[in-house]
Amino acid sequence: MEYSEMLINRIKDLCRQRGGITIHRLAKMSSLRQSTLDNIIRGNTKDPRVSTLHRIALGFNMTLTEFLDFPELNDYAFDEDEEESQSAAVLKYHKKTENSASDTVLP
Where is the HTH cro/C1-type domain (predicted)? Predict the structure, then answer.
């Protein structure tokens, strides 16, 4: 099973477990465009951004860690090229969130 298929199944499973949440409803709960979720579910987006996955997790009232903690993904072996791409995306996301956090002015 491909990485993108595992994410599709995870989203669909969580929607069913949470009382049959529709993709439209999940998009609203996640503050994402429905087209973004549609593209993931249809397999058009094979490698969604970490920030998108984070928003989906929040829509399910989960942390990103909880969202990504399921047996199929835990047992998945990435190819070297695929792994480098994923690592780069995670590092870019963390750097972006660190920069925006340091720009925040607290009262």
Answer: 11-67
Inside any domain, residue 33: yes
Q: Is 55 exposed, middle or buried (0-12, 13-18, 19+ CB in 10 A)?
A: buried
Would you state the structure tokens that stand for residue 100, as one six-digit string? Answer: 């925006």
- Note down the domain range covering 14: 3-74
27 vs 6: CA distance, rounded Å: 19
The verdict on pTM exceeding 0.85 is no
Residue with tokens 């969580």: 14
Question: How many C-beta atoms lie closer than 10 Å to residue 52's C-beta?
Answer: 18
Number of domains in the chain: 1
Residue 87 resides in a domain: no
Tens of pLDDT, residues 68-87: 999 998 888 877 655 555 56
